Amino acid sequence: MDDILNILIAVAPALVVGVIAYYFFDSFMKNEEGRRRFLLHKDSQKDVLPVRLQAYERLTLFLERVNPVNLLIRVKPVTEDKKAYVDLLVATIEQEFEHNLSQQIYTSSECWGAIKSAKNTLIQQLRKASAKNEITNAQQLREHLIQNSDGHENPTRVALEYLKTEVQELFN
Questions:
Q1: Is 106 part of a structural domain of the chain?
Q2: End-to-end CA distance of the chain, in Å?
Q3: What are phi and psi of 120, to 5 degrees?
Q4: What domain count does the chain have?
Q5: Nearest-CA neighbor of 149 among 130, 112, 122?
Q6: Each residue of 4-39: pLDDT tens digit?
Q7: CA distance 32 to 28
Q8: Range of the domain at 166
Q9: Is residue 119, in this structure, part of any structural domain at all?
Q10: Of these four, 45, 60, 125, 159, which has the most CB atoms within 10 Å of its CB?
Q11: For residue 50, how many other CB atoms are within 10 A of its CB?
């Protein structure tokens, strides 16, 4: 029994030192792994940040191009048919949107949702305005939309504000 006690007295300090060494070594390795991940993330940010900013710039350009006033000034009616004009405007919006579809991988889901919502709301506003009976031709529709663009909450402005907020978060 004395032999076992003597062995335990001799081994106990080695076990305590071993446990403490294991604890410090384990925490050191976790810290090093975190540092490596941070440095890797930092290096990748150097490459990704310019691409993300370019995506935000393209989405800003999209929102400005489909802004109702800018869109109506740029896309003139081809005929007097108001339905044909709305179809032309919707096709233009859809074409602009499809041209920027790949930018969604650089934005948050919420931001991309705001952009899609702006596009869909704008299309809905165009169709609703064309359904009014007092508007009989494309030129009247165009004038009505330009005059009323300030009165309604502009969906492209809302999405643009969300986009700006997300870009600001990149630098905070």
A1: yes
A2: 67
A3: -65, -40
A4: 1
A5: 122
A6: 888 888 899 999 999 999 999 999 999 999 999 988
A7: 6
A8: 48-170
A9: yes
A10: 159
A11: 10
